[in-house]
Amino acid sequence: MNEAINKDAIRLRIMALAFAATVSSSACSAPPESITDRTKHPDKPITRVEQPADSQGVATGEVPAPVMQRVRAQLSQDSTAADTAQLVRSEQVIFNDGSLGCPEPGAFYTMATVPGYHVVYVIAGETFDYRVNMQGTVKRCLSRSSADATTPSR
């Protein structure tokens, strides 16, 4: 009899711990509203970190050399004429979410702001728009509307 009571007590404790773990993990996880389908809000602007412009008006500045090397390597994969590329934009930005300002249909992204870099090259009239997060992941943005969706930071 005593053994049956101990087994019941152990089961009760296990269920209580499982319940506490479930409640605790759901309280700590991000609410569903923190992730959204960015294709529903593609015009949400990107905040630029103020950068100086060179003598030709090209935004330049805080993009570290290793990041630029990764972007150039990706550009070389995307175009056979990468050696003729003209740099149009190179700046540090704060993206509004995990899409890096370049949402893909059906994809879901965190709604937290993401610091990163926006680098744009032009080759023979074709724009090569790259977004890079702080981990160094390079993403080519093919959406025309998101390429211009930047606003100056204040």
Describe this structure in words.
The protein is of the alpha+beta class and 154 residues long. Helix content is 29%, strand content 29%. It contains three helices and eight strands; from the N terminus they run αββαβββββαβ. The protein has a six-stranded mixed beta sheet. Strands 1-4 form a two-stranded antiparallel ribbon. The radius of gyration is 24 Å and the shape is elongated. The relative contact order is 0.19. Residues 21-43 and 145-154 have low confidence and may be disordered.
Blueprint of the fold:
Layout: H1 2-28, E1 35-37, E2 46-48, H2 65-78, E3 86-95, E4 108-110, E5 114-123, E6 126-133, E7 138-141, H3 144-147, E8 150-152
Parallel strand pairs: 2-8
Antiparallel strand pairs: 1-4, 2-3, 3-5, 5-6, 6-7
Summarize the structure.
The chain is an alpha+beta fold and 154 residues long.
Keywords:
two-stranded antiparallel ribbon; 29% strand; six-stranded mixed sheet; 8 strands; alpha+beta; 154 residues; 3 helices
